[in-house]
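Hello Y.,

Per our agreement to keep a running log of every chain we model this quarter, I'm adding this entry. I've kept the format consistent with earlier entries: sequence first, then predicted structure.
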Amino acid sequence: MRLRTDSLVRNSLYLLFSTGLKALFSVVFWIIAARSFTTDETGSATSLLSATAFVSLLALLGLDTSFIRYLPGAKNRQSLITGGLTVATIFALALSTLYVLAVPTIAPRLAFIERSLPLAIGVILFTTAASVNTLTDSIFIGSHKSGYIALTDGAIAGIVKIGALAFFIGSGAFGLYAASSTGLVATTLASILLIAIPLGWRPRFRDSLNALRPLARFSGANYAVELLAIVPQAVIPIIMLDRLGPSDAAYYFVAYQVAGLTYPTIFAIQSTMLAEGGRAHANLGILMKRSARLMLMISMPVVLVVILGGHWILLIFGPKYSAHGTLALIVLMATSLPMAAYSLIYTAIRLVGRLQVLVSSSVLFAAALCGLAWLLAPRGLVAATAAWPLSIALASLPGGVSLLLWRPSSARHRRTDPTHAKPHRAVSPSSGVRPQRDFTELQQAGLAALLSLSIAGNAAPIAMRFEDSDLSHAPPGREAGTISQRVKERPRHRPDADDLGDSARPISG
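Predicted structure for the entry above:
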């Protein structure tokens, strides 16, 4: 009954189910690929896949977030969808062509693409398909049909790319890249059919660009936020490598990948909340508190399991990963709560139209994370990892304060909903409920989110204290060998990459 009547819960669970299906098929795909292709071929293929993902993100110009926000209440859906798909296709074609031409300079090992016209065309088409597919996912979320994403991105893409892998075995790095990208092409075509048939979309080019113009400001702000989010992901591993060495960089990478188990929950509920807030007569305060409860209900069991069993989970990767990475994993898992609060705050900021706060906080987060990681790295891996919760807490303050000071007004609602010719309250209370109630609910939710960030101020210093604690005065008879002792001993002997054996090679690759 809850799944049938509660669209927030239903669409959030569909997105999580889609993420689980993609992860399952990806594991199967890469297990087969690792046994069928050489490490050099796999490394080149993954580099191409990373470039495809990055260029396809650049081509969206922030329209993916705009569609989730404004499509639920848009009256010109046909023109809006047509314009978005057209812009994404044109920019993806242009940017992927520039990338192919620049490959000999920026990635000499992939220069074989530029020298072969069929391969160059393949990269351009696959990148365009990736960009369009991301936008179709946003259309499904904005249309409250997230179940289609589980079908397309999960089942269809996974089955097709595993089947294509058998066909491309023996064709080198580009064959592995093509096998993975064939799934993107299949899911893109399936998504277009679902948008056209069940959702009733018909291309309407006459007013398509005019339909996108009111979204330019919102799309531009979210485009900047997406680009800023990429900066820490690229910079932090370099800081770990430079300031701590290759071994600690490997420990951090593995801990971060394990901690990422909770992040899909946060991002799925964040996207669903943004779509629900775009509906007419949505009470943002109530929606924010319901989203927070749903995040806690789904993600907290995973957080507790990983924190309590992190030592044994990391043993799967090797005893050294468990000895040196457990505390870092605990800090990253404790970051889930402030990260959930951060995502809730800035989803609400998007809905009320405080775009300057959104962009400035993203700049603050990227700068604080990179700066704190660089400053804390000499104190050890755990101290450097503590930059995550501290930066999230710091970057959440402007948004939380902005929500507490927010006042509902008809003028503001007109600014936050540009897809209508007439004033429309996209984030207004339900019928018969005064705006003051929505305002009070939102203030309470914003204050609760700010208070939850206190864990970021506690988890990091506690973990750093464990790392730096002096264990030389342990009681007689107690054996040395606990995690804290091993972490304390690590600065005296930091293993290099050769000490890790074969387990380090996939990480460095």
